[in-house]
Amino acid sequence: MKHLRVLGLAALPTAIFAVTALLLAGAGTARALAAGQEERVLSDTESRRFEAMTKGDLATLDGLLAEEMTYTHSTGQLETKQQFLDDLRSGKLKYEFIAPEDVLVRLYGSAGVVTGRARMQVRMQGQALGFQIRYTDVYAKRNGRWRLVAWQSTRLPEP
After folding, report:
1. Whole domain around residue 16: which residue ranges?
2. 8 Å CB contact between 116 and 135
3. What is the pLDDT of residue 58?
4. Which residue numbers in the chain have pLDDT < 70?
């Protein structure tokens, strides 16, 4: 209060504005930090999914994929979660190597979109295939956990 007496009442609105601006800036910084942390959580979830795919860890995949998940393969084939897991379980499809690049994570409330490119090495019905894709993954946050609801990949032309 000593400072306010020195400044006089005329300075009170300026002082209130300055304090309010500082508080809002701090809140904005806190939101930005929280958003950055949540983006890292989603990025880690995506990395765990790719790792589970290459290791054939169906239990982890089952927990990361939403029940209504759809996967549009680079061939255009559309699969449900159950069909995708069945293909992995039977050995019809095996992911041997996935190297994501240029990954971008964006959040929209309880939805997240992950885009990127990846070099893939797979076995499809015993045949080894190597190619690159560009992909878009859509996640929904439910009960505090990110779950993949849609995955679409486009095969890139060979260089």
Report:
1. 2-155
2. yes
3. 98
4. 1-35
